[in-house]
């Protein structure tokens, strides 16, 4: 089983791009700062985790999320690798989000996020799975398509 649930704050505004494939799938990337549990004698630690979102929910993330906004992300871990121009192999670890829920505004007050606070944007509108890596050019293998009719809102 490969399942992840995270709650954290965006470290930057999501970057939105579209795939080069014929059906032009929206792909958003952002980084999430997630607090790591600590004991009394340790200093607070934060992990920075890369998130990838597809379809309509990617467009919603780009439209409504900003740096500092608290979100919950549900998805799966995906690893990959690529070669740099110098021939070095770099390894990547991303969370491919199936669901992103907006929890609070970006003001760090912990209050509800106004008109869009607490809204969940799940699902995707892509129609075919493609092999992809860490770039924006493809959809990761195993990504299942969901039509708009399957989304309950």
Describe this structure in words.
Residues about 110-140 and about 140-145 have low confidence and may be disordered. This protein has a single domain, classed as Nucleic acid-binding proteins (OB fold (Dihydrolipoamide Acetyltransferase, E2P), Beta Barrel), CATH 2.40.50.140. Strand 5 and strand 6 form a beta hairpin. It has about 150 residues and is mostly beta strands. Strands 1-3-4-6-5 form a 5-stranded mixed barrel. The chain has one helix at about 55-65; strands at about 5-10, 15-20, 25-35, 45-55, 70-85, 90-100, 120. The longest helix has 10 residues, at about 55-65. It is globular.
Silhouette: globular
CATH topology: OB fold (Dihydrolipoamide Acetyltransferase, E2P)
CATH class term = Mainly Beta
Taking pLDDT < 50 over at least 5 consecutive residues as the criterion, the unreliable ranges are: 108-138, 142-146
Q: What integer value in Å does the Rg equal?
A: 16 Å
CATH superfamily heading: Nucleic acid-binding proteins
Named CATH architecture: Beta Barrel
Number of helices: 1
Q: How many domain modules?
A: 1
> By helix and strand content, what is the structural category?
mainly beta
Question: Which features would summarize this protein structure in a list?
Answer:
OB fold (Dihydrolipoamide Acetyltransferase, E2P), 7 strands, 153 residues, mainly beta, five-stranded mixed beta barrel
């Amino acid at each position: 089983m490969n399942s992840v649930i995270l709650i954290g704050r965006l470290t930057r505004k999501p970057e939105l791009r579209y795939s080069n494939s014929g059906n032009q799938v929206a792909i958003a990337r952002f980084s999430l700062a997630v607090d790591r549990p600590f004991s009394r004698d340790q200093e607070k630690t934060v992990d920075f985790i890369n998130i990838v979102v597809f379809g309509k929910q990617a467009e919603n993330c780009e439209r409504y999320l900003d740096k500092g906004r608290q979100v919950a992300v549900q998805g799966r871990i995906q690893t990959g690798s690529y070669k740099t121009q110098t021939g070095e192999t770099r390894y990547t670890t991303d969370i491919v989000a199936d669901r992103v829920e907006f929890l609070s505004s970006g003001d760090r007050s912990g209050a509800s996020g106004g008109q869009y606070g607490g809204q969940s944007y799940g699902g995707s509108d892509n129609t075919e799975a493609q092999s992809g890596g860490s770039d924006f050019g493809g959809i990761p293998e195993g990504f299942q398509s969901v039509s708009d009719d399957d989304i309950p809102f």
